Amino acid sequence: MVNLETTFAGLHLKNPLIAASSGLTNSLKKIKELESAGIGAIVLKSLFEEQIESHSEKLAQITDYPEAADYINAYVEMNHMDKYLDLIRSTKSECNVPVIASINCYKLSRWTEFAKTIQDAGADALELNVFVINAGEFGDTYLEDSYVNIVKELKKVIRIPVVIKMAKNISNLPGLAGKLKSLGAKGIVLFNRFYQLDIDVKKMEITSGPVFSNPSDFSDTLRWTAIVSGRVHELDIACSYGVHSWEDAIKGILAGAGGIQLCSVLYEQGLNVIENMLTCMEEWMNQRNFTTIDDFKGKLNYANISSPSLYERVQFMKYFSSYK
Ligand SMILES: Cc1cc2nc3c(=O)[nH]c(=O)nc-3n(C[C@H](O)[C@H](O)[C@H](O)COP(=O)(O)O)c2cc1C
């Protein structure tokens, strides 16, 4: 009998499939639907640092009484927070699925205080989406330092597991992952998908790119999952970005992931895809006499294959030299 139970960031999951933070996780109704569809955990829609700040600013501008601005700003922040906390509380009381709250941040500020209230509301863990772009105005290690400082500060405030949703453009990903683990982070998500942009050549304007990922995006996720999992021990990894099929989920686990986050595929194929994926994963495990996820988790990671170079540069040369 196949058992799909797994752990991610210290949480017990009935299966590795996690609904990634998105519009599909922003209400109790939608979360209940995800739970009925069989999901193993959910990451709530992020509370955005910018969203709170810009909303506050706009409201402050429409008042003629500058002295009211502080009051209004505080009210707006609390209102946003109250709704978020209510969602955590109601999900915890009406669902059994583990709830990972999410904050999208870019600097150390008052949101770290909010993290404590998120914990008190009953969230099982907190995922941080650190959205920092260094367009040349900061030093070389600004991005990495931001992750480190944020985790350091947060660990002073909360005891629930902290999960970091990583950017792709980190120069030494295993090194940073190891540092975050030593600071107390329990898991990382590979990767965050930044807002995609494009250029409209007719209008010569910046536009937005596709909202959803493609199956071909998964290759990078897989490579780095395998490398980090082989290099950094006892740090749970969830694959994200480009998971579009049950095969991708199996590949992610073989590369060393404990959790598999789904987003685009849920939007594009609907929630039934969860059950289909779980059934196919069970079948695949059955055929190979694997009874638990641990039987094959990390089997093909960087540390466990005889030629780790398969994940590295030499493959690049082979790959392209076969094309004439
Ligand atoms: C409509 C939509 C809303 C999203 N909102 C958030 C969010 O609030 N916070 C966050 O960390 N990621 C958010 N994401 C990113 C997803 O969580 C995920 O990282 C990304 O879509 C890559 O995974 P995928 O390839 O499975 O789609 C959103 C994605 C979509 C498509």
Structural topology:
Layout: E1 6-8, E2 11-13, E3 17-19, H1 28-36, E4 41-43, E5 47-48, H2 49-61, H3 66-94, E6 99-105, H4 111-120, E7 125-130, H5 142-157, E8 162-166, H6 173-182, E9 187-190, E10 197-200, E11 205-208, H7 218-231, E12 236-239, H8 246-255, E13 259-262, H9 264-269, H10 272-287, H11 313-321
Parallel strand pairs: 3-4, 3-13, 4-6, 5-6, 6-7, 7-8, 8-9, 9-12, 12-13
Antiparallel strand pairs: 1-2, 10-11
The structure holds flavin mononucleotide.
Flavin mononucleotide binds next to β6.
Give the CATH topology. TIM Barrel
For the biggest β-sheet, the strand order reads 3-4-6-7-8-9-12-13
Q: What sequence of helices (H) and strands (E) makes up the elements?
A: EEEHEEHHEHEHEHEEEHEHEHHH
Helix content: 40-55%
Average pLDDT value? 89
Supply the CATH superfamily name. Answer: Aldolase class I
Q: Which CATH architecture would you pick?
A: Alpha-Beta Barrel
Name the CATH class: Alpha Beta
User: Beta-strand level of the residues, as a percent range?
Assistant: 15-25%
The coarse silhouette is globular
Largest sheet: 8 strands, parallel, barrel
**Radius of gyration over C-alpha positions, nearest whole angstrom:** 21 Å
**What is the first-to-last residue Cα distance?**
49 Å
Secondary structure class reads: alpha/beta
